[in-house]
Amino acid sequence: MKSHVTRIGLGLAALGRPEYINIREHADVDKAEKSYRLRAMDLLEFGYLRGIRDFDTAASYGKGEQFLKEWYQDTRYPDVRLSSKWGYTYKANWEIGYNGPHEVKEHSLSKLQEQWSGAKELLPGLKIYQIHSATFESGVLENKEVLDELLRIKKTFGIQIGLSVSGANQKEVISAASKVAVGGEELFESFQVTYNILDESTHEVLRKLLEKGKVVIIKEALANGRLLRNSNYPQYESLYKQLDEIASDHGVGPDAIALRYVMDRLQANLVLSGASTRKQLDSNLKALSIELSEEEITSLKGFHIQPEIYWPERKQLSWN
User: With respect to CATH, is domain 7-315 assigned 3.20.20.100?
Assistant: First the structure.
């Protein structure tokens, strides 16, 4: 096993808005925007001081992109690698219990240009700019105007162009995107994908991308919290028990084991922590200090489920 192939980064999905699709440990936190800003600034700095250099956000993460921008412009650390995404618009406007879609997708040229105008303020720290949740249905992979503009951004600012994917057909979207060429050159250099113990259906296609030198970023490595013991998922009791046993052997939490599984199994470039507190991030980072045996990896590999089961279950999670 290669102990230091995969880095851990910090994603701002749960830091930039008061409600997110996740099983939150602290449901009673102060949800005022000012409080979230202070917590984001604190956790970004805490993460940096603990060795994190990769920070990922999106235009639709509430104030996530703005918080990251403020922190970066204040600190100006020269060694950070920032990434952001375009294509969704945040609609909840910090309204708790918002009755409607919190995010609305639009993969148009005008939306790209609008959201790039904000993201480029993260330069020169911005290293990757991504289509947020690319799908066949949105037509973004065939939109010549959008692809040409992404190539222009890539060439003009010297950053990598990538995309994130979600859903049961992640594998097919990744395969199609990897073949997209503009002006005779492959456009996409970075792929942000959901991959964890429950869903590793993209394993083979991601390994091929890594062999080609592409950047692979893993999100939702804890399955939005479902990999941590929860009475709502009795079907995963055997998995919880196995995670607890391995965690006890290594002297870490089950979250670190779940993260380390992804690191050792896939050896991607980056795994994102979705932590929203120092305690969670500190626990996640312990994955860097351990290494799973082949036997431990094999014992966890058998708990994967089909994407057709995984994604409908994820869809049932509420914004909280």
Answer: yes
